[in-house]
Here is the input.
Amino acid sequence: MPRVTVHRKAHFNAAHRLFNPKWTDDKNFEVFGKCSNPNYHGHNYELIVSLTGEVDAETGYVYDLGILKDLIKTEIEDAFDHKNLNLEVEEFEKLNPSVENIAVVTYDKLRKVIEKEYDLTITLYETPRNFVTYSGS
Amino acid sequence: MPRVTVHRKAHFNAAHRLFNPKWTDDKNFEVFGKCSNPNYHGHNYELIVSLTGEVDAETGYVYDLGILKDLIKTEIEDAFDHKNLNLEVEEFEKLNPSVENIAVVTYDKLRKVIEKEYDLTITLYETPRNFVTYSGS
Amino acid sequence: MPRVTVHRKAHFNAAHRLFNPKWTDDKNFEVFGKCSNPNYHGHNYELIVSLTGEVDAETGYVYDLGILKDLIKTEIEDAFDHKNLNLEVEEFEKLNPSVENIAVVTYDKLRKVIEKEYDLTITLYETPRNFVTYSGS
Amino acid sequence: MPRVTVHRKAHFNAAHRLFNPKWTDDKNFEVFGKCSNPNYHGHNYELIVSLTGEVDAETGYVYDLGILKDLIKTEIEDAFDHKNLNLEVEEFEKLNPSVENIAVVTYDKLRKVIEKEYDLTITLYETPRNFVTYSGS
Amino acid sequence: MPRVTVHRKAHFNAAHRLFNPKWTDDKNFEVFGKCSNPNYHGHNYELIVSLTGEVDAETGYVYDLGILKDLIKTEIEDAFDHKNLNLEVEEFEKLNPSVENIAVVTYDKLRKVIEKEYDLTITLYETPRNFVTYSGS
Amino acid sequence: MPRVTVHRKAHFNAAHRLFNPKWTDDKNFEVFGKCSNPNYHGHNYELIVSLTGEVDAETGYVYDLGILKDLIKTEIEDAFDHKNLNLEVEEFEKLNPSVENIAVVTYDKLRKVIEKEYDLTITLYETPRNFVTYSGS
Here is the structure.
């Protein structure tokens, strides 16, 4: 059967600051500038989850996109949406919530619940002008 | 001369929470739900500033959009971008930073620096799905 | 209090054909061309519902957008989404489901459940290139 | 019958420079900056033509959008697309092709061929960040 | 010469239902839900056709995009646009017109008319939130 | 550390004509049609620069996007924006400024200033409907 990639869009709105807890505030400000504002700022994160696998001969599906939508909700949106990423998401307690790291954490969380036969890629927009892609390792 | 409306887009990224300081935390949560998270969340606000006036016969301009771009930067972006609206913007010390109120404040700030001969309209996107328009009073 | 317009986006996917039941098939094809295909075609309709009213001093809201989202779901999405507009939506039993008429029907359905103090405007995209606006009468 | 506005999108790609022939080159550069480059620059202009009128009871149309598409092609796209607006479009021989003036010329050209019973509005994007609206005088 | 990928966008509007003819109606509804509505629903499909090849030293082209536009029209748009995919497109007589399968069929149809020296990728949006990519086997 | 791709969007507006100086005007017109208009036409070019590398453990960055923004400005926008590509950009003195060639030139200019440890990909939109991707050789 042909191998096709299916993509599903989602979104979450969150506050964060760029912050390395091993550094002084001055050093954080020097490296991250206004993105390190201790009072936080925020973004509308737009997420694309992409799965590659064989088309099922019976359903014509690679993966049921309704199930994928629900997985994204329980694993990612419920965890990140309307949250302060630094204060309320355990993965970022000691990890700077840069868009790169948020994409890696998103990948790791979804990789655990999506069967290994599917390749997984995460695309994450922090703004319409800045975004990242991550496919594991 | 013909009257034309010119529109200029801009954007700022900010943290906020919906919060009425006259209410208890419970009442705030009851009315605003997760939008009232005391740790804040945030958005990429997309702004459109619209000015209506006569086309100048010499320049073909209603308003120099380079000057408008600079006004938006000094009056709005410098005040709101990468800020916590509740904590760091004086207009929201006692005013809930709902997207409606942010649009009204944006209008009021720009109205002071744009000549009265121009009609002014503010369009403000809190997310791609929720946005508001305000033209004064 | 300032009068602000709040906009909420939604969407539904439906099949339809342009068809005047008082005309012969030949006349329908002559006027509507391939849009009158008796086997139907379809669209992703993108809807913007706009309400104008005063900002509430306590909440900073013109209208609770969560409530509006739910109203759009029960009144419009549940009625139109994944439906054949000609066959399954009673308003179009004798009314051609042109994008103009779908917007008027959408307006009429929402006008009944939204308090009269709010002005209501419907914007409906049939495709990214063809869309309509309707504000009543 | 209800009055509805129908919108049709189109586009053209053209070269231009901002230039007032009554001024010296220095004065043009002082007012228009790099937009006055004598070797020209260019844009993908995105156009929305909006007509307001009554919905026809037989067709459900305000205006046949296929006819409107053809009118936009013969009146606007054939005149402006892949052209140098300053050198090749007679309306701009003595008129600065600012986005405001291009919108007014577009309005005037379409106004002549669209029946008076329809209100006409032109929206013209010079870039995704700068655009104008014109509805006649 | 450098190898570059050129992308061309197109679109078609069609009705379909998800349906496996080997299953009962109940089984189809159980698997596909409202997407299996026997009266059909529909979509604005947005298509991106991507060809990778060497840049021609004389023309600066990988592939003449005007020719590609015409190929997409004759092979895909004329076959799918304003059609009922289940009833009127022979490839889907026994094949479920899921977005995955439509992309595979689109690939197969274009692969026959595009020279083998070009790599071919199909991206197909069923909605702005659900889309697929296919590059052959 | 994980390897992530970071993407940054930018844009420039320029005039050009498709033109092979080794050919007669007739031959140029035969091959390039209206795109070869000797008076030029123009586009809003939308650029995406993509860098792939390891996430830095201290900063959470693959590459400082503020620095990338500045590099795109000095290397690409300052060179191409509001310019006539054929007349004013030395790389196109003898090279046809097709969107393919502009992407290759953009890649070559950025490749010189971005460290070799990063993979580089250029995506360049000539219009919303025509775009190219180039990753070197």
Summary: Chain D touches chain B at residues 18, 20, 22, 31-33, 95-101, 103-104, 128-134, 136-137 (CB under 8 Å).
